[in-house]
Specification:
Blueprint lengths: L1 E9 L3 E4 H12 L7 H9 L4 E4 L12 H27 L8 E5 L9 H9 L6 E5 L6 H15 L4 E9 L11 H9 L2 E9 L16 E9 L7 E6 L2 E6 L3 H18 L8 E6 L4 H11 L7 H10 L6 H11 L7 E8 L3 E8 L1
Parallel strand pairs: 4-5, 4-6, 11-12
Antiparallel strand pairs: 1-7, 1-8, 2-3, 6-7, 8-13, 9-10, 12-13
Helix pairs in contact: 1-2, 2-6, 3-4, 7-8, 9-10
C-alpha cells in the first residue's frame, strides 16, 4: 500500500482579519457610495476569521489585468511551492533526489514552463523526475492528487511521489465586479500551499532510518455528476478567472454524498461508524453543514475542517491537505479507517480511504 510519509502546509506572509479584506473588496468591487450591507453580511456569514494573501492588500488595486495577476501567481507559486516541498521532504526524512514523480496542481494561475518544471533545478530534483502539472480540478485536486499518487505507486512500489498544491485565490479577484458569486468568493477563499510525500509499498521506510508514520492509502473513488458543469468553476475572461459558484452546490452534496460514501465503504467491508477521522475539504460553512447532514456525522466530526476554514479560509485544492496535516497531528487511533473527501468543478467528488 501507499504510505503518506509527510504533509507540509505553508501560507503567504500577509495575514489579514476578515474585516480588512471586506473593506478592500468594498473599495474595489462596489460603486462609490453603494450600500455595502449585503457584502458585510456575506463576509460575516462565511465564518472566516482571517486569511493570508500573496500580496499586501494595497497591491491588488494596482494589478492592471490578467497578465499582471498571472505574473504575480508564477512568482508566488514558485516561492511557496519550494517551501512546501522542501518542508515535506525534510519531515519525511528524504532528499530531493529521492523523488520519482512530482504532481503539481493549481486552478488559480497558469504557466509554461509549468511551476513544477521551474522547481526542479531550484530544489535539486533529478533531471529525470517525472512531472505532471494539473489544471482544472479546482478544490477537488487535493484529494484527487493523493489518489493519483496512489495509482502511480501501485505500479512502482519502490518509488517516492510528491503532490504539490499552490492556490493563490486572491489573484483571481475581479475588480468592479459585484455579482453575488463574486462577493461570496471574496468572503471565502484564501491563499496557501501544501505538499504531500508518499512512498510505495517497498519504499515505506525513511532514508534516515525512521518510519513514514502517516496513514496508508487503501483505495480511492471518483464520481462525476451529469449536467452539473455550471455549478462551479471559472469563466475565462479578458480580465482573468471569473468565478462560477452556484448556490445549489450544498444541495447536490446532500443529495449524492451519502450514497457515494456508503458504497465506497461497503466495497471495503466498512460502514460510517468504522471511520474515526473525516478529512473534508473546508469548502465553506454551507458545504460543511451539507457534508455533516448527508453523512449524519456526530458533533465535532468536522471540527478540524471548520477550524481550518476559520483560521485561513478555503484554500481550494490545498484546503483538504491542510486539514489532513492537522488530522495527522491529532493522531487518530492506529488501525482505524479515515475518509478524505473533496468536491470540485465538474461537479465531482473524490474519496480516498485511509488506514491509520
Amino acid at each position: 500500500m501507499t504510505r503518506i510519509a509527510a504533509v507540509h502546509g505553508v501560507l503567504p506572509p500577509h495575514r489579514h482579519p476578515q474585516r480588512a479584506i471586506t473593506d478592500m473588496v468594498a473599495r474595489h468591487c462596489l460603486p462609490a457610495g453603494a450600500d455595502r450591507r449585503v457584502l458585510d453580511r456575506l463576509h460575516e456569514g462565511a465564518r472566516v476569521g482571517a486569511r493570508h494573501t500573496a500580496l499586501p492588500l494595497d497591491r491588488y488595486g494596482e494589478l492592471d489585468g490578467f497578465g499582471a495577476a498571472n505574473d504575480a501567481f508564477i512568482a508566488g507559486a514558485v516561492e511557496l511551492g519550494a517551501e512546501a516541498v522542501t518542508g515535506a521532504l525534510r519531515e519525511a526524512g528524504l532528499s530531493p533526489r529521492d523523488v520519482d514523480l512530482l504532481i503539481f496542481t493549481s486552478v488559480t494561475g497558469i504557466a509554461a514552463p509549468s511551476v513544477d518544471a521551474r522547481l526542479v533545478g531550484r530544489l535539486g530534483l533529478r533531471p529525470d523526475v517525472r512531472r505532471l502539472p494539473v489544471f482544472g480540478l479546482g478544490c477537488v485536486a487535493g484529494a484527487a492528487g493523493i489518489a493519483r499518487l496512489h495509482d502511480y505507486l501501485l505500479g512502482r512500489p519502490d518509488d517516492v511521489a510528491v503532490l504539490l498544491s499552490v492556490e493563490l485565490c486572491s489573484l483571481t479577484f475581479q475588480r468592479a465586479e459585484a455579482a453575488p458569486s463574486q462577493l461570496v468568493a471574496t468572503a471565502l477563499f484564501g491563499d496557501g500551499a501544501a505538499a504531500v510525500v508518499a512512498c510505495g509499498a517497498r519504499r515505506g521506510v525513511r532514508a534516515d532510518g525512521g518510519s513514514g508514520g502517516g496513514p496508508t492509502v487503501v483505495a480511492s473513488r471518483s464520481r462525476l455528476y451529469p449536467d452539473t458543469e455550471r455549478l462551479l468553476g471559472w469563466d475565462i475572461t479578458g480580465s482573468g478567472f471569473r468565478v462560477v459558484l452556484d448556490p445549489a452546490v450544498p444541495e447536490v452534496v446532500r443529495k449524492n454524498l451519502a450514497a457515494e460514501v456508503d458504497g465506497f465503504l461497503t466495497d471495503h467491508g466498512l460502514g460510517r461508524r468504522d471511520v474515526t477521522a473525516w478529512v473534508s475539504h473546508a469548502g465553506g460553512p454551507k458545504v460543511l453543514d451539507a457534508v455533516a447532514e448527508a453523512l449524519d456525522l456526530p458533533e465535532g466530526a468536522l471540527a478540524v475542517s471548520r477550524r481550518s476554514l476559520a483560521e485561513v479560509g478555503n484554500l481550494s485544492s490545498a484546503s483538504v491537505l491542510h486539514v489532513l496535516r492537522d488530522t495527522l497531528a491529532a493522531a487518530p487511533p492506529p488501525g482505524t479507517a479515515g475518509v478524505l473527501l473533496a468536491m470540485g468543478p465538474g461537479f465531482c467528488t473524490e474519496l480516498v480511504l485511509l488506514r491509520w
